[in-house]
Design brief:
InterPro entries: Rieske_2Fe-2S, Rieske_2Fe-2S_sf, Rieske_Fe-S_prot, Rieske_Fe-S_prot_C, TAT_signal
Distance between the termini: 100 Å
Number of domains: 2
Pfam families: Rieske
Low-confidence stretches: 30-39
Strand content: 25-35%
Largest sheet: 4 strands, antiparallel
CATH topology of the largest domain: Rieske Iron-sulfur Protein
CATH class of the largest domain: Mainly Beta
CATH architecture of the largest domain: 3-layer Sandwich
Strand order of the largest sheet: 2-3-4-9
GO molecular function: 2 iron, 2 sulfur cluster binding; metal ion binding; monooxygenase activity; oxidoreductase activity, acting on paired donors, with incorporation or reduction of molecular oxygen
Cofactor: [2Fe-2S] cluster
Mean pLDDT: 84
Structural class: alpha+beta
Protein name: Cytochrome bc1 complex Rieske iron-sulfur subunit
CATH superfamily of the largest domain: Rieske [2Fe-2S] iron-sulphur domain
Length: 152
């Protein structure tokens, strides 16, 4: 009697090999996402400097458009900024580029918020209140002239 002949090897991977490969690919995607979230921060001084390059006297926004105890979004020289008025008559302008990974920060409820990773900043000095950002937003020097917030 002769021993049975084993089946000829198939030309493709086994189901087990396919699942291992898919698991490894999924792990690589997740790993890349996690490492990407830990990337280097954005330089707040660099963002503010690019806004300031628009030049002194450039109108940022009418003061009447900035709520007391809040903020308004604007753009100067193609760069996004946030104009805050923590108390009546106290005005600040900050780069709206998040210091964590460069997303655009928006006005929140009594604070500034990054919608990408939930960093939060104060209205008074853009100090970090929470989230992954570790640096405050860059501040731009401004003054109020005839009811307009202008670059100083």
């Amino acid at each position: 009697m002769t021993a049975p002949t084993p089946p000829a090897p198939c030309c493709g991977p086994t189901r087990r090999q396919l699942f291992r490969g898919a698991g490894a690919a999924a792990g690589a995607v997740v790993g890349a996402s996690v490492l990407g979230a830990c990337a280097e921060s954005t330089d707040p001084g660099e963002s503010a400097a690019s806004v300031s390059s628009a030049g002194a006297g450039t109108v940022v926004i009418a003061l009447a458009e900035v709520p007391v105890g809040g903020a308004a979004s604007a753009e100067v020289g193609g760069q996004p900024v946030l104009v805050t008025q923590p108390v009546e008559g106290e005005v600040h302008v900050f780069s709206a580029v998040c210091t964590h990974q460069g997303c655009t920060v928006v006005p929140g409820d009594g604070e500034l918020e990054c919608p990408c990773h939930r960093s939060r900043f104060t209205l008074e000095d853009a100090a970090v209140l929470g989230g992954p950002a570790s640096e405050p937003l860059g501040e731009v020097s401004v003054t109020v002239v005839d009811g307009d917030v202008v670059l100083a």
